[in-house]
Amino acid sequence: MIELDLHECLALLAEVALGRVVYTRDALPAARPVDHVVRDGEIIIGAGASPWLTDMVRARGKSVLGYQADEIDQHSHRGWTVLVIGYARIINDPDRLALYAPLVRSWTRTVNDALIVIEPDLVTGMRLAESSI
């Protein structure tokens, strides 16, 4: 495994549209697939038909969320994985909503309940290289 720096991690995230939002639900860890875009160092995700996620972030004002995406070949096991941890909030600014809404499609093909921005605080990533085993 080769550790990636912040810029490499964000560049790789920007190359894919689907990842997993990681959160706490009923005091247990949970993850759900969501679409995303990377803009200005932030991760913008669509809440899809997930009012519980929107409600959680809205109720807390700022929530800590994780976001993980990867691209790994199932046969060679080569690829990469990136994990972002940061504060999340609902995007309320009409200009930002108009800009990002067409870019963030719900992976379930439903209308996004809201757009959520994750401000990365901790970003880790690994490139999975070919093994000599």
Describe the protein's topology.
Layout: E1 2-3, H1 6-15, E2 18-25, E3 28-39, E4 42-46, H2 51-60, E5 63-72, E6 79-90, H3 94-100, E7 115-128
Antiparallel strand pairs: 1-7, 2-3, 2-5, 3-4, 4-7, 5-6, 6-7
EC number: 1.-.-.-
Pfam family, one: Pyridox_ox_2
Protein name: Pyridoxamine 5'-phosphate oxidase family protein
Summarize the structure in words.
- The chain is an alpha+beta fold and 133 residues long.
- The chain has one domain: Pnp Oxidase, Chain A (Roll), CATH 2.30.110.10.
- It has 3 helices and 7 strands.
- A 6-stranded antiparallel barrel has the order 2-3-4-7-6-5.
- A hairpin with a 2-residue loop joins strand 3 (28-39) and strand 4 (42-46).
- The radius of gyration is 15 Å and the shape is globular.
- 26% of the residues are buried.
- The model has no long low-confidence stretch (mean pLDDT 89).
- This is Pyridoxamine 5'-phosphate oxidase family protein.
- Keywords: Oxidoreductase.
- One of its GO terms (molecular function) is oxidoreductase activity.
How are the strands ordered across the major sheet? Answer: 2-3-4-7-6-5
Low-confidence stretches: none
Radius of gyration: 15 Å
The class by helix and strand makeup works out as: alpha+beta
Order of helices and strands: EHEEEHEEHE
GO molecular function: oxidoreductase activity
Protein name: Pyridoxamine 5'-phosphate oxidase family protein
Keywords: Oxidoreductase
Organism: Nocardia jiangxiensis
